[in-house]
Amino acid sequence: MDAIDTQDIIDFLTKGEKAERLEEHLRKVERKKGKVFVSSYTLIELAYLLEYNYGVDREKVAKSLRTILEDRVFKVEGKPELEKAVNLYAQGMDLFEALKEVQYEKVGVKRLRL
Predict the structure, then answer these.
(1) Can you tell me the distance from the alpha carbon of 114 to that of 81, in angstroms, rounded to the nearest whole number?
(2) Using CA atoms, how far apart are residues 6 and 91, in angstroms rounded to an integer?
(3) Is 2 helix (H, G, I), strand (E, B) or coil?
(4) What is the per-residue pLDDT for 79?
(5) Domain containing residue 88
(6) Which pLDDT belongs to residue 42?
(7) Three-state DSSP class for 75?
(8) Is residue 114 part of a domain?
(9) Spatial CB neighbours of 88, under 8 Å, sequence gap ≥ 6
(10) What is the domain-level CATH number for residue 83?
(11) Helix extents (H) in 1-114
């Protein structure tokens, strides 16, 4: 299984110079019923870069993240937690903070607030 990095996803989304090759690779993987690994860190970085470096609005960023989460070709680390975190992100919360909140809820702890 191969892993995909943030810059490759951005290149694909922005139709960069590697986009065609990546699309071809993903089709090949899909035909073979394979998967491409996406780490949770990759999605957090992707959200940050799209929103703050590329000026993509939060709604479109959330849509892009959901597309990756739903696509069968991707094996996303911590998918259930990320799905919940993306929903919180779409409502205005920072994705990294949202993911921490979802993880706290999963293990049944409360965030210490002083």
Answers:
(1) 26
(2) 23
(3) strand
(4) 96
(5) 2-107
(6) 96
(7) strand
(8) no
(9) 98, 101, 102
(10) 3.40.50
(11) 6-13, 19-31, 40-48, 58-70, 79-90, 95-107
Residue 54 lies in a domain: yes
Residue 69 CB: number of other CB atoms within 10 A?
16
Number of Cβ atoms within 10 Å of the Cβ of 42: 20
Residue 111 CB-density burial (10 A; 0-12 exposed, 13-18 middle, 19+ buried): exposed
- Please check whether residue 95 is in contact with residue 48, taking contact to mean a CB–CB distance below 8 angstroms: yes
Other C-beta atoms closer than 10 Å to the C-beta of 110 total: 7
The verdict on residue 112 lying in a domain is: no
For the stretch 44-81, pLDDT in tens is: 999 999 999 999 999 999 999 999 999 999 999 999 99
Largest pairwise CA distance in the chain: 52
